[in-house]
Amino acid sequence: MPATDKIEEAEFFLMKMRESYNHQKEFIYYLNAFLPALRSVPEYLLEEYNTKYSLGILSTDKLSAGVFESRAKQINHKDALAFIQFWKDWMETLTSDVAGSLLFIKRNLGVHRIQTRPTLVKVTLTEVLNIRTSIRIEKYDEEGKFIGTSESKDEENKKTENGSSRIDWFFKEYENELIVVLCEKALKKVKTFTDEVYNRFR
Fold it and tell me: What is the pLDDT of residues 18-37, one digit of tens each?
């Protein structure tokens, strides 16, 4: 499976997160599916280029940047060495970024220890307004002499705007960005990285 398939998988789960935004349980399920799909993209790139450069690292062997680099050095494959250096530099950039680092940490916890879930909820309430209107009419004759007034009753002109609420999901470690926004940013970075890999190392 190419890395682009894992990107599409991550995009699918992100779409489902948006659709289930107001349903916490479903939102968490899709978040926990999104994170490993996103995090696996760099590993899938390693496997793609292991095959492309005929490094011979078996699918039953553990494949990491260190293993990839060691094998590339062993057979003195310059293109493979250039690729793995680019890969490592990019991973360092991603994990130094707040969004990327946080999501990768959450993914590791979600896979190995505990379910990833929002740790901060913000509820925005729209106030219910009761608007009362009344009309006061003053009557004058043709000479401008005041005759009297008439006024409509408030109760007859009562208007209510329904209140509403919105729930937003955050990680307490980074409460300035919605979880969905963090995921969107990280996915964009991973897509950019994948495109650069394919363009540089054809």
Answer: 999 888 889 889 988 998 89
Distance CA 51, CA 31 (A): 31
End-to-end Cα separation, the chain, in angstroms? 17
User: Which residue segment(s) compose the domain that 39 sits in?
Assistant: 3-123+174-200
Q: Are 26 and 95 found together in one domain?
A: yes
Q: How far is CA 48 from each of CA 7, 29, 67, 191, 201, rounded to the nearest angstrom?
A: 14, 29, 14, 16, 11
Residue 17 counted as domain residue: yes
Hey, how many other C-beta atoms are within 10 angstroms of the C-beta on 85?
13
Number of domains in the chain: 2
Let me know if 68 is exposed, middle or buried by CB neighbors in 10 A (0-12, 13-18, 19+): buried
The answer as to whether 168 is a domain residue is: no
80 and 17, same domain (yes or no): yes
The residues, any chain, with a CB within 8 Å of residue 81's CB and separated by 6 or more, are 69, 72, 73
Structural domain includes residue 167:
no
Closest to 45 (Cα-Cα) out of 195, 184, 145, 174 = 195
pLDDT digits (tens, 9 = 90+) for 145-189: 666 666 655 544 444 445 556 678 887 777 788 889 989 988 999
